[in-house]
Amino acid sequence: MMASPRPKSPKTPASRNDSKDESIWEKLGTLGRKKKIQQVQDVSREGRFAIDSPGGAVLRDLPAEYYAIEEGEERSMIDPHSYNSPRFADLRRVLTNWLNDEMAPYRIIVKSLEEDLYDGHVLQKLTEKLSGSSLAVPEVTQSEVAQKQKLKVVLSSVNQMLGLGHHGSQLWNVEKIHGKNVIAIVHLLVALVRHYRAPIRLPENVFAKVVIVKKEDGQLTHRVVEEEMTSTYDDLGLRYERDAFDTLFDHAPDKLQVVKKSLVTFANKQLNKINLEVTDLDSQFNDGVYLCLLMGLLEEYFVPLHDFYLTPRSFEDKVHNVTFAFELMQDAGLPRPKPRPEDIVNLDLKSTLRVLYNLFFKYKNLN
Asked: Are 321 and 291 in contact (CB under 8 A)?
């Protein structure tokens, strides 16, 4: 016997009102999609116009959302080629390492200048550590409004520390820092490094191309400017006139070896009297011990051993020794050495040579 076919489930016929509702929502959805598509097309068209305009090749690597700006609005962004250049990358690396050294007591690790500094927390800790004072701001800020309020207080304090007054600097502000503008962040950090004479060597003469896009009369225009991120600095973080040692390092490495040999001979002439000898000028003066003993020998007095560390163990011990040696030099009538004690301890050869040459110049005829 064959089974009878299973009856189909009855369907409720759609009412006219339901059909009408579906038609309205379909129309609204279609209009919304068309409007969104039109907006995307407008932005793409503006982007293509900017790219195809004279000199627009530099913009081809910028993200598409960079072109979505309001009438009269202006935005700036580092040219991607400059961002990835070896010199700018080296500058970011040096600044990041310095920040991590400063943030170590807070157990904060900075990996990206843009991503880790924009909310103001790291800048707050850095400002408090450098200035030795506390800022009246919340530790944790989640919302954009709260982050910008915190940044406003932090940057106001930074501007006062740098002696820039209430108007601050044109190179950075709340919007630029919170917008992760790496040019503004680097400018700010370089200013702090120079002002507080951080014991690091910034790469000199670093430039970066900055693309500035503005919307005028519905069209995007752009210009490219080259910004100076660092210049030529001396060991105190200030601009200075290049000296003979800069020339030797840059253009006459063979003559540099002759100068080093002469300074080693000069130092050993004195240190041999107490059975000491310099064999590596690059490293043997960094703890300050030889500098202290050398000053006593040149001035013909005994340097009390309790005034410096004969076997320094820490960075601070070495800085103390070099600082004490600098004081002995000033007591002998020499001008205060231009390098910092930290530069000598950090094995900065050019700084060491400058200090030894000043001694050589004063005492070279000593019998």
From this structure: yes
Q: Which helix (H) or strand (E) holds 75?
A: strand 74-78
Greatest mean pLDDT among 45-49, 120-124, 134-138:
120-124
Length of the chain: 367
Q: What percent of the chain clears pLDDT 70, i.e. is strictly above it? A: 74
- Among the listed residues 193, 49, 37, the one whose alpha carbon sits nearest the alpha carbon of residue 113: 193
SS3 228: strand
Residue 27 has pLDDT above 80, yes or no: no
Residue 222 DSSP SS3: strand
What is the rounded distance in angstroms from the CA atom of residue 335 to the CA atom of residue 285? Answer: 19
* Residue among 30, 59, 45, 106 nearest 223 (CA): 59
Helices then strands, counting H and E runs in the chain, come out as 14, 3
Q: Give alpha helix (H) positions in 143-299.
A: 144-161, 174-178, 182-195, 244-251, 253-271, 289-299
pTM: 0.52
Report in angstroms the alpha-carbon separations of 97 from 34, 174, 250.
Answer: 50, 24, 26
